[in-house]
TrEMBL record:
It comes from Actinomadura fibrosa. Residues 150-215 form the HTH luxR-type domain. It comes from the Bacteria. Residues 6-122 form the Response regulatory domain. This is Response regulator. Keywords: DNA-binding, Phosphoprotein, Transcription, Transcription regulation.
Amino acid sequence: MTDPPRVLIADDQALVRTGFSMILSATGIEVVAEVADGAEAVGAVRRTRPDVVLMDIQMPGMDGLEATRRILSGAAGPPRVIMLTTFDLDRYVYAALTAGASGFLLKDVSPEHLVAAVRLVRSGDALLAPSITRRLVERFAARDDRDAALHRDLSPLTSRELEVLQRLARGLSNAELARELRLSEATVKTHVARILSKLDLRDRAQAIIVAYETGLIVPGQP
């Protein structure tokens, strides 16, 4: 049986930290540290080696975006990072995803969704709030760091894997992908794993970014 995720919470609001910690702890998820800014988060990750970091985007001193870059750059077996934001169109979220964050949550998330999100991101099996993330990507994909990634080579992907990537980038879950492509969920998971491996991506969040940056998906296209 898989051990419960170990979580670090980084947020400058004490009530948010306490509330999230109580929700997670009540379900058996271990909260290994609570910190109030990005610099503390970087140090605490090195000390406690959590599986998942809940990272506020806007904090005094070092913000969550810079902290995410430092945590994920060059680390062996880095944690998954979930960005926390107050608004669902925060202009920093696209940059956070390109930095390697696995997704994001609104701070008014329900307890059930918070727990599910931590477990899902720890497994790397699903993207959080795909419809909201897709809107963010569509809004900012044409602006932030687009030119740097335009020439990523998709040629290693088979035609079926390209189909899966297109639909994944539109926010479909594994179950929805399976229904639409008339495949089993196990086959869909295999295709997704191969896509991530061939393109050297951490998770589905980065796969969505690549789909937009390479023009496989055009922002606003139905």
